[in-house]
Every structure is written in structure tokens, then in C-alpha cells.
Amino acid sequence: MNNKSNFLIILVGLPASGKTTFAFKLKEKLESDFHNKVKIIDPDIIRDKTFPNSFDFKNEPKIREKNIQSVRKHLIKEQIVISDDLNYYSSMRHDLKLIADSLNIKFYIIHISTPLKLCIKRNKERGKSIPNKVIKNIYNKFDNFDKYKWDTPFETFDITQTMDEIQFIKILSRKIALNLQEKKEIKEPLRYKPSASIREELDLITRKIVGELLKNPKYHVSKKAILEYRKAFIKSRSDEELDSKKILVDFKLFLDKKLKG
């Protein structure tokens, strides 16, 4: 191939699923095929640099923020970026999607679907200090890919079904190149997206804002009203008015006005 493009790869999988090994093999193939630098963004490395020799859940929002900033920074440099994170919530994947959308580049969700039992076995074999209960907890909280069209994996790699990882990566690289060629035509602005896609954006963004708001105990008494305000906001929006940034700003203003009113 003689392509020089940049795009975002969003890896999704449990701890000890083999994501990092997959990421490095994929990096090598993509750099060869696309003649472009590939940057792997690993939040574990960010965590170790920012808070060495310690782990505290209170630090995770800052780690997540630095992770997102790093993805954006390297995409702006026109590099190919691989997000080597768990990305087990659809909201995590959506944050990455928004970066790709804002830069008008393609993103590809790759699900490393290693079964839970095998992840636990691998975790034990490699002598890492991830408690099994943490892996099981992430497994139980994992958001499946059946709610939003954009959240459908481009490819799924299951080592129990596909033993030849190198061959899988070769085919994946080829499929990405073909997909990029098919999508070279200029995209329409977000406000002209199909109605179903816009409604998905509305649902996810407003749901996320409400979730963050309700983390504050002072709003618990108003939970029912806030949920009704969200429904009213979604119902009041017309397709011509919407894009991701406008949804975010308008809904925050809408809620602020209602809660103060």
C-alpha cells in the first residue's frame, strides 16, 4: 500500500486480554503499510509517570483527561493513534469518537474479545498484581456494542477462534485501507447527519451530563425532575439544530435554567 493517512484505533478489552501485545504488532504493520508514525497511547504509562509507585482511584479522572489530551495531540500531528485502554464503557469510546469527529478523521473500534476465564488465567501466569475481582468487576460493568450504531466494532479478535494473530492484523490493515478509500468523499456537516445518528448523540451526551450532575448529593432530591428535563430537551430538539458541541452547550444551559427556575 502507498497510503499516508491518519486515523484512530480504539482497542477494547479486559485486563490481560492481550491488547498491548496486539497493539505493538498492529503498530508495526500499520507503519509499514501506511508510511506514517503510529503512536500507542497507554494509560498505564501515563499513570506511572504522573503518580509513580501509587494507585488511587481518586487520580483516575486526571489520568483519563491526560489520556484524552494525548490522543488528540498525536492525531493533530497527523499520526495514527492506537488507544491501548480498556475502553469498557460506551462513554469512554464516545469521548474518543468525539475527538476523531472534531478532527474529521476515521476511527475504528477493535474488540479484543478474550474470554474472562482466559484473561484470569493469563493474569496469573504473567505474575501481574491485578486482583481477579477487578477483572471480574470490569467484565460485569462492560458496555456491550448493541446500543449505538457508531459503537459497532470494525473487527473482533478472539484468540480462541483465530490463532494466527499476524494474519488477522494483515487482513485488518488491508480492510482499513479499503475503508479509507471508500470514505474519501467529503463528509456532510454534523447537522445533516441521519436522524438516528443525531438521536444517538443526543441520548449519550445528555445521559452523560445527567450522570455527572447526579454524582453531587445536593441534586439527589431533584433526580426525578432532572430526568424529566432531559426527556423534554431531547424531544424539543430538531435535526437541523444539532451537532455534538451544540448539544453539550445547549443542554447544560437548559438544565441550569430549569434548576434555578
Description:
The protein is of the alpha/beta class and 261 residues long. The chain has two domains: 8-182, P-loop containing nucleotide triphosphate hydrolases (Rossmann fold); 190-260, no CATH class. Helices cover 54% and strands 8% of the residues. The chain is built from ten helices and five strands; from the N terminus they run βαβααβαβααβαααα. A five-stranded parallel beta sheet has the order 2-3-1-4-5, with helices on both faces. The longest helix is centred in the last third of the chain and has 19 residues, at 195-213. The radius of gyration is 20 Å and the shape is globular. The N and C termini lie far apart (60 Å). The model is unreliable at 185-194 (pLDDT under 50).
CATH classification, class level of the largest domain: Alpha Beta
- Whole-angstrom Rg: 20 Å
What is the number of helices? 10
Strand content: 5-15%
- Tally the beta strands: 5
CATH superfamily of the largest domain: P-loop containing nucleotide triphosphate hydrolases
The CATH topology name of the largest domain reads Rossmann fold
- Run of helices and strands: EHEHHEHEHHEHHHH
Provide the residue-averaged pLDDT: 85
Strand order of the largest sheet: 2-3-1-4-5
Q: Residue share in helices?
A: 40-55%
